[in-house]
Amino acid sequence: MVSRVYYHGTWTPSMGAPSYEIAIDSHCGFCKKSAGWLKSLDWRDAIRINPVHEPGMREMRVTRLSDSRTLGGFDGFRLMAASVPLLVPMWPFLWVPGVPWIGRKAYRWIADHRSELPGGCESGVCSLPEKPPSP
User: Fold this and answer.
1) In degrees rounded to 5, what are phi and psi of residue 107?
2) Which residues contact 17 (CB under 8 A, 6 or more apart)?
3) Three-class secondary structure of residue 132 per DSSP
4) DSSP strand pairing (69-72 vs 61-64)
5) Residues of the chain above pLDDT 70, percent
6) Residue 37 pairs with which residues in a beta bridge?
7) Is the dihedral of CA 42, 20, 25, 78 positive or negative?
8) Looking at the predicted structure, is the pLDDT value of residue 126 above 80?
9) Angstrom distance (rounded) from CA 36 to CA 51
């Protein structure tokens, strides 16, 4: 069965081939758990998870495979959210004025504190450099 998805003003067939690749920090337990959760929502197989090891990686990167457009963090999540069936209802909300600002701030806070969140870091390499103490 071929389903159809609405994409930039046109209905296009979706046959289960990945439409997006999400690069995540392979040494970050929280990142891997989050990617697993996202993949569990993706019964159309629209996303492919690509664990990479890049010391200091601060956010996931989402690449739309049709045109190689790549965005990170909240903007990357928003780019691919309409392709994941259980995220479709929230997708229009992600474009409401003010929501992107809040989403980026929330994403940055989570990314900066990921070693303290459930799953944490497995090797410490996903910990971001500490800020120098104030004089």
Assistant:
1) -60, -45
2) 45
3) coil
4) antiparallel
5) 75
6) none
7) negative
8) no
9) 11
100 φ/ψ angles, rounded to the nearest 5 degrees: -60, -40
| DSSP calls for 9-34 | TEEEEE-S--SEEEEEETTBHHHHHH
Question: Which domains, and CATH codes, for the chain?
Answer: 17-116 (3.40.30)
Contacts with 50 (C-beta within 8 Å, 6 or more apart), sequence order: 21, 22, 23, 24
pLDDT (tens digit, 9 = 90+) per residue, 59-82?
A: 999 999 999 999 999 999 999 998
Q: Let me know the angle formed at the C-alpha of 67 by 63 and 73, rounded to the nearest 5 degrees.
A: 25
Q: Which of 7-16, 17-26, 66-75: highest mean pLDDT?
A: 66-75
What DSSP element (H or E) covers 127? none
For residue 121, give the DSSP letter.
B
| CA separation for the pair 81, 92 (Å, rounded) | 10
Q: If pLDDT is split at 50, 70 and 90, which confidence band does 31 have?
A: confident
**CA-based Rg of the chain, rounded to a whole angstrom?**
16
Beta strand pairing call for 20-25 and 47-52:
parallel
